[in-house]
Amino acid sequence: MTCQIGIYEHHDDSLENWNTLISLQNQQPPRELLRRIIPVLKDFQNSQYKRDIGSLSALLTWHLVDSAAVPKGELPRIALSRQIGSNIDYFCRVSPRVVEVYSIDEVLEWQMIAAMEIDQAPVEPVPPGPAPGHG
Predict the structure, then answer these.
(1) pLDDT score for 5
(2) In the 3-class helix/strand/coil scheme, how is the chain assigned residue by residue?
(3) How far is CA 118 from the centre of its chain?
(4) What pairing do the DSSP bridges indicate for beta strands 110-117 and 98-104?
(5) Among candidates 53, 99, 61, which has minimal Cα distance to 80?
(6) Which of 27, 86, 93, 111 is deepest in the core (most CB within 10 A)?
(7) How many Cα neighbours within 13 Å face the side chain of 11?
(8) Which pTM value belongs to this model?
(9) What is the rounded end-to-end Cα distance, in angstroms, of the chain?
(10) Is the pLDDT of residue 135 over 60?
């Protein structure tokens, strides 16, 4: 399956106004891709960079390359693109808080097949205790 991930500053930006466009050649269905990227997006929401779309683009691209399952000696089939391809099976529209997945059929009609809001995970409070070295 081929897919592209468009990274957008705001979830309501038009499809053509991505900040980064990542192309993937993989055998994973959209559900598996979401399982790979949702934890990264949740971590990003808890980071100090959560408003920096460039940092999100770099982090997500790095994560996809780093977590790609490829035979030893081969490179993952991941690239940055300049335009949305006409031969993709699905498209993930990613913004810091929302992910939408579109299926694209042979006549290039797009149909949303999934959408989810990325909630900022609550930060666990640290219980009070003795200072390090004083316990």
Answers:
(1) 92
(2) CEEEEEECCCCCCCCCCCCEEEEEECCCCHHHHHHHHHHHHHHHHCCCCCCCHHHHHHHHHHHHHHCCCCCCCCCCCEEECCCCCCCCCEEEEECCCEEEEEEECCCCCEEEEEEEECCCCCCCCCCCCCCCCCC
(3) 11
(4) antiparallel
(5) 61
(6) 93
(7) 10
(8) 0.79
(9) 55
(10) no
